[in-house]
């Protein structure tokens, strides 16, 4: 039998403990499947004495993740600490520079430093894998890099942040306000240490940027992702969307166009009966469209110990089997710098505004829309007690630029309070 594949695991939190647990429980099965024993040589975390619910007594301990990453008895460095910089970056760089393979679940690290890390890995003859970084347990990196390698990818979209989907689902099915649903998600331990990574759309934006790099053979361009979080979505929006047969989702879409690479992660209305509309709770869904394969829908747990550790194991098993792929599916030097493009494709939009309920007010709003070239499909003013009325408008398909112009014009009207909220209606 071949020599064991020796791991150094930095980070023994939710995901790290999950990986240790699977390796302890399924050692024989994994060896049968890979033809090679997978052994943990050493581990690292912040606090040595913590009870982690799994025995780590058999493994050497390193206080310093960089020292762990470069140990002679470590073939694969498994980075499960998190964070775009700090020890995660330092230890990953050290491992790659020492020619060791790296497996990580860290989307922030790769979204910010994916290109230089891929270059260091390839120069050192090492591989850098990150299945767990996007959509938790869903094997979406493998699907794009391997299963769909014979396709031109025409579009990738999906719900990639379970926390946001949980919050939006609870607002929809339990009638909770945004703040109540946020507090519930917090109580369940769903939120990242910095909750803005979740609700600000940043975490999902990181994931989308990684998928776009593989799908289009481009350098990771997280800074070019058009980002809008879910903080502006109200219970009234959720109810109005439901009335019209839609659900609100934090939806990521990326596609290559003649003008450049479009990447957006924004709250959108999707048909309630569509697969994305029916996605509830913390589940993720990624939809991939290829020129030959058509549409593929992948759905599953986007987070949590078991699903995320399952994805980490998939990368480790690949390395044990000798599968060696470039980080983003083609050599790092061949990845192109995409021109960022804003979406210009016309779409219907949902618009909510606060209108002073007095004669001629609605006519002024209609004029602002009309002068920007935006045509109204449906309009509804809800009953209200104070002088400011909630007004909802669904437009016919409109160019995003025209809608922006209309929104600015409406915001400048003396009969409109604040900036109207606009959400794209996505046909999926
Ligand atoms: N949780 C999930 O469902 C998912 C997580 N991920 C990603 O997986 C990675 C790990 O996440 P998760 O397990 O949830 O994180 P946790 O916060 O649960 O665990 C982080 C671990 O890293 C250790 N750690 C943190 N900082 C340091 C440091 N400076 N030096 C050494 N060890 C350190 C912590 O040590 P200690 O325990 O001693 O404090 C802890 O064991 C992140 O990149 C995350 O984005 C990806 C998909 C899903
Ligand atoms: N905070 C992330 C964890 C998984 O990446 C989510 O809610 O989806």
From TrEMBL:
Pathway the protein takes part in: Amino-acid biosynthesis; L-methionine biosynthesis via de novo pathway; L-homoserine from L-aspartate: step 3/3; Amino-acid biosynthesis; L-threonine biosynthesis; L-threonine from L-aspartate: step 3/5
Matching CDD domains: ACT_HSDH-Hom (cd04881)
Active site: 207
Binding site for L-homoserine: 192
InterPro entries according to UniProt: ACT-like_dom_sf, ACT_dom, Asp/hSer_DH_NAD-bd, HDH, HDH_cat, NAD(P)-bd_dom_sf
Family matches, as PROSITE patterns: ACT
Any Pfam family matching the protein: Homoserine_dh
Transmembrane segments: none
GO biological process, any: methionine biosynthetic process
Domain of life: Bacteria
PANTHER family reported in the protein's UniProt record: HOMOSERINE DEHYDROGENASE
Protein name, UniProt field: Homoserine dehydrogenase
Species this protein is from: Pseudaestuariivita atlantica
């Amino acid at each position: 039998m071949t020599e064991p594949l020796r791991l150094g695991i930095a980070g023994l939190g939710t995901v790290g403990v999950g990986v240790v647990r699977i390796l302890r429980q399924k050692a024989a099965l994994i060896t049968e499947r890979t033809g090679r024993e997978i052994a943990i040589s050493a581990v690292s975390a912040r606090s040595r004495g913590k009870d982690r619910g799994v025995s780590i007594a058999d493994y050497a301990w390193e206080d310093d993740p960089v020292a762990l990453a470069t140990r002679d008895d470590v073939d694969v460095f498994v980075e499960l600490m998190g964070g775009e910089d700090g020890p995660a970056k330092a230890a990953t760089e050290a491992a790659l520079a020492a020619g060791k393979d790296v497996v990580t679940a860290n989307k922030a690290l790769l979204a910010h430093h994916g290109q230089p890390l891929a270059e260091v890995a390839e120069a050192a003859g090492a591989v850098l894998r990150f299945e767990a970084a996007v959509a938790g347990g869903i094997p979406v990196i493998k699907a794009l890099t391997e299963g769909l390698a014979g396709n031109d990818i025409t579009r990738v979209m999906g719900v990639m942040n379970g926390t946001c989907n949980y919050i939006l689902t609870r607002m929809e099915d339990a009638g909770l306000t945004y703040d109540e649903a946020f507090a519930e998600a917090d109580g369940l331990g769903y939120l990242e240490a910095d909750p803005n990574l979740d609700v600000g759309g940043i975490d999902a934006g990181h994931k989308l940027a990684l998928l776009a790099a593989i799908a289009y053979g481009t350098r990771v361009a997280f800074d070019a992702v058009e980002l809008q979080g879910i903080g502006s979505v109200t219970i009234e929006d959720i109810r109005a969307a439901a009335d019209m047969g839609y659900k609100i989702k934090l939806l990521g879409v990326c596609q290559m166009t003649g003008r450049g690479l479009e990447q957006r992660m924004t709250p959108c209305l999707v048909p309630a009966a569509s697969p994305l509309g029916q996605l509830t709770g913390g589940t993720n869904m990624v939809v991939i469209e290829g020129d030959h394969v058509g549409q593929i829908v992948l759905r599953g747990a986007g987070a949590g110990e078991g699903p995320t550790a399952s994805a980490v194991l998939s990368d480790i098993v690949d390395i044990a089997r000798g599968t060696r792929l470039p980080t983003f599916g083609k050599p790092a030097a061949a990845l192109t710098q995409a021109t960022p493009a804003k979406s210009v494709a016309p779409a219907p939009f949902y618009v909510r505004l606060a209108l002073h309920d007095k004669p001629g007010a609605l006519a002024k709003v209609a004029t602002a829309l009309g002068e920007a070239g935006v045509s109204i499909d449906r309009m509804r003013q809800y009953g209200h007690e104070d002088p400011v009325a909630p007004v909802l408008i669904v437009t016919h398909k409109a160019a995003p630029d025209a809608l922006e112009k209309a929104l600015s014009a409406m915001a400048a009207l003396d009969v409109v309070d604040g900036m109207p909220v606009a959400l794209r209606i996505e046909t999926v």
